[in-house]
Design a protein that fits this description.
- The protein is an alpha+beta fold.
- Helices cover about 40% and strands about 20% of the residues.
- The protein has four helices and four strands.
- It is elongated, with a radius of gyration of 22 Å.
- The two termini are about 20 Å apart.
- The mean pLDDT is about 90.
Length: about 140
């Protein structure tokens, strides 16, 4: 079971072309932004998605480095970014996925004539078929 909250230090670098963000404990998690507000928003989003991916891949989640142990390059601003994971996990697990299916032409004609919502019918049928296993 993973925690509901994570808080990791981030280093913001203000450059003429924007703000780059580095998470020292999470290589590859490198969001950016044009304004401080956008940078923080993007940092939270990137942190959540990055950690969710690590959870899904079964990778060990590193402990965050204490802020006082970080020594950024000149001009770097150290801050703490916190993310609430239940909303990240829920959004990732309930995203819409496009599926391609094959049905007989006669059935397609009948369903279209009846203005059937194919996606809704398939979802309802899958939920019924899976019973208690389906996320409802």
């Amino acid at each position: 079971m993973y925690p509901n909250y994570y808080a990791y230090p981030a280093i913001l670098y203000y450059d003429p072309d924007g703000i780059s963000i580095e998470f020292p404990d999470l290589p590859g998690c490198l969001p950016c932004g044009q304004t401080t507000e956008e940078a923080f928003h993007n940092a939270k989003e990137a942190l959540g998605v990055h950690l969710y991916g690590m959870e899904q891949d079964g990778e060990p989640i590193p402990a965050p480095t204490p802020l006082q142990e970080l020594h950024p390059e000149e001009g770097g601003v150290v801050t703490l970014v916190e993310v609430f994971m239940p909303s990240i996990r829920d959004r990732a697990q309930n995203r819409v996925v496009k599926k391609t299916l094959t049905i007989p032409a006669w059935l397609n004609r009948e369903a279209e004539a009846a203005h059937v919502n194919f996606s809704q019918v398939l979802q309802d049928a899958l939920k019924k078929y899976l019973g208690n296993q389906a996320q409802i």
